[in-house]
Design goal:
Layout lengths: L1 H24 L2 H23 L18 H28 L7 H28 L1 H13 L1 H16 L3 H29 L9 H9 L4 E13 L2 E10 L7 H16 L3 E7 L22
Parallel strand pairs: 2-3
Antiparallel strand pairs: 1-2
Helix pairs in contact: 1-2, 1-4, 2-3, 2-5, 2-6, 2-7, 3-7, 4-5, 4-6, 6-7
């Protein structure tokens, strides 16, 4: 988690610099960029809290610990960013008729530093993102956040070279709209996770087919696949086994877990093996019997 700590420190420091620079220079674009950066920092802090050795362990009251805290924080983070973006748009609209006097030099200097820091953070997280799905999600978020300081640099250059003062308000509005668009994707993902939807990278039909191909398995049913937090997917299922295979159940369970762990990267697997469904009261949905792959 060292790379995540370094990235968080850099993002916090440069966000503070953007806020101070925005106030001193009179740049709304820098403040908009700082608001975007603030949400990235919060997301990184939550990722540190909920992953690796820093994550609080599960308890009797919370058997999964605080794994869902990152998702709930992402929801709050997105709503806060929407509020900031709305304020930026309203402020930009109000200032357009008043005219502005932005210190383009100071704005450009801080914007360039901000862009450099975001690029460094993106590079720092690149390798860990290949090994950790949670950091991969954060790396994607950081990649999108680079567009904020890049827009601020363009606005500052327009002020310095063309003496176009309205560029600050124009690019501030552009950053706010960009934040709203990117946050919409984040909100859609958060809602999908909270509704315990199937992770996009897991084809449940193929998963069921792979398990039913095992010798002795007659049917898999009551299948549930969902995401607890980015990088941590769970599976529960009932698997019907031929009665004469009772003595092989432990070996069969090991094969099922191997398929889930190694082929589908599911980290929490709970499988109930049974030879009859007589006392099974759960929903026996078996959609995979009529489809062998996820619809395009």
């Amino acid at each position: 988690m060292t790379s995540l700590r370094i990235s968080l420190t850099l993002v916090v420091v440069v966000t503070i610099a953007k806020v101070a620079g925005g106030i001193v220079s009179g740049s709304l674009a820098l403040l908009a960029d700082a608001g975007y950066g603030l949400t990235v920092g919060v997301a990184m802090g939550l990722a540190l809290l909920t992953t690796g050795s820093d994550a609080p362990a599960g308890t009797v009251q919370r058997t999964f610990g605080y794994q869902r805290a990152e998702i709930l924080a992402s929801l709050a983070n997105a709503l806060v960013l929407w509020a900031i973006a709305a304020w930026i748009l309203l402020e930009a609209w109000g200032r357009f008729g008043e005219g502005s006097d932005v210190d383009g030099g100071l704005m450009l200097g801080i914007a360039v530093i901000g862009l450099a820091v975001h690029v460094i953070v993106m590079l720092v997280l690149k390798q860990p993102a290949k090994e950790d799905a949670g950091i991969a999600h954060m790396h994607e978020h950081t990649f999108l956040s680079v567009m904020g300081p890049a827009a601020t640099v363009l606005g500052a250059l327009a002020i310095q070279i063309l003496d176009w003062q309205a560029a600050d308000l124009t690019f501030a509005a552009a950053i706010a709209i960009l934040a709203l668009v990117n946050t919409w994707r984040l909100l859609a993902h958060v809602v999908h996770v909270l509704l315990e939807g199937t992770p996009e990278h897991i084809d449940v039909y193929r998963l069921c087919s792979r398990i039913e191909e095992l010798p002795g398995v007659t049917l898999i049913h009551d299948v549930h696949v969902w995401t607890l937090t980015p990088g941590y997917d769970a599976l529960t299922a009932h698997v019907m086994v031929e009665p004469e295979r009772r003595g092989e159940m432990q070996d069969l369970l090991g094969r099922i877990r191997t398929i889930a762990y190694e082929e589908f990267d599911i980290r929490h697997v709970t499988v109930q093996l049974e030879t009859t469904a007589a006392n099974c009261m759960e929903d026996h949905h078996v959609d995979h019997l009529v489809a062998h792959a996820r619809p395009a």
